[in-house]
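Bumping with the actual sequence this time:
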Amino acid sequence: MTVGRAFWPLRGAAPGRVLEGDRGVNLQLSSTSTILGIIAAAVVAGGLAGCGTPSTSAHPAVARPASAAEVPVRVQPNAAGWSAMVQRPDHIYVGMGGAPIARHLAWRNWGGPRAWAAGKLDIYWPQPGPISGWHPATYTVTVRLQDIVTHNGQRSYRTMADFYLNRQGAAKVLHFTFSVRPGGSVPAWNPGQASNGPRSIKDSRESGKS
């Protein structure tokens, strides 16, 4: 007779069939160990979720508002109003009728404290007949924009200077400020006092530093 090996009846088996006791015990222990391992892993995972690094779902990303530096600087190219402002315009109208027009503008340093452009300046000097029939005198111009202001979150240049040489070779400067006149409600390019100016683009840039 062999000692140490027990046989147990197989539940539901036909009479006379048995299951070896040690194999049954091993299978039961294996299943129990697997279940306990799964439970332990779940407990550990739950503890890490509760005490560890916050997850993305627990702390969703919040949209960061744009800083002032990220808002592009624009300018009004069409005489008046806060709407339809653009970056690096090809032209800037400063009024109606015979007002000067800066056009074919090629920009440098856009978005900085001072933006510069080279182009053409049309000035409508008084002529006989209706304004609609006037012809412009055209000059090579250097345009300077500066004084950035913010309105309803939009940044824009507030002042403009047009540097050019007249027919006699004298350096001239036209000054404009984008502002609301007393009694008005809409901003526009309002002219300042014209003045004599530097004789070259380099000199005009130097004068802008003061």
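The tokens above came from a reply further down the thread. Residues 7-51 form one domain.
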